[in-house]
Amino acid sequence: MDNLSPLYEKQETCHLCKRPFSSMKLRNRFVKLTGQDTDLKPNYADAAMNPLFYHVKVCPHCGYSFTDDFSKFFPPGTKDVLAEKITSNWVSQDYGRARTIHEAINSYKLAFYSGFLKKEKHLTLAGLALRIAWLYRDLSSPDEKRFLALAAGQYKEAYLNEDLTLTSMSDVKVMYLLAELHVRIGKWEEAVKYFSKVLEKQRESRDKKLVEMARDRWYELRDEMKKNEASAIS
Q1: What pTM value is reported for the model?
Q2: Would you state the pLDDT for residue 166?
Q3: Which end of the chain is flanked by fewer CB atoms within 10 Å, N or C?
Q4: Residue 217: inside a domain, yes or no?
């Protein structure tokens, strides 16, 4: 038992080409969460033991990449688009082993592109973009902000146009993320709007911790905006 590997193989079947392949998963016992950032990014004691590295499944045969959040249904014409845009250009790569953070980022980008071409839900695409931003944050990369902005745009589309009631994401959680992401990309007025929407839902929401986080962040943002206004006047 002491020699148990942190990673184990899981057999998958590609939704697109239907061929089998293996993908890696991280055993829960090796994952030690130490906290989270205000945009809900989980932080782990060992950077290498990050389950986010293995969230995406990359088919080595055709290049189609997906997560458990992807639908197995392909809208008419999308299989042909995926074959043209991804499979025809695919050079086989092995993601069925231990991944570096850079390989993890690439797997998410492949999944985002696959999901975009397949017309996956905006909520699914938002989650992929946000995870890319989180991984870039661990690298202290300026690319983080670009993907935070992309995630914010996709969450906004989901909030305005998709039914969230049958998903694992409540409308309060989506609004909180919209607020927090807008803080991080410097669009404070938008952030205030969405934090206010969260607080309007506080009595009916079951996400009490999230409402408290929104209230704390709203106060912090308000104080920061006041300081900036005072600096501008002086």
Answers
A1: 0.94
A2: 82
A3: N
A4: no
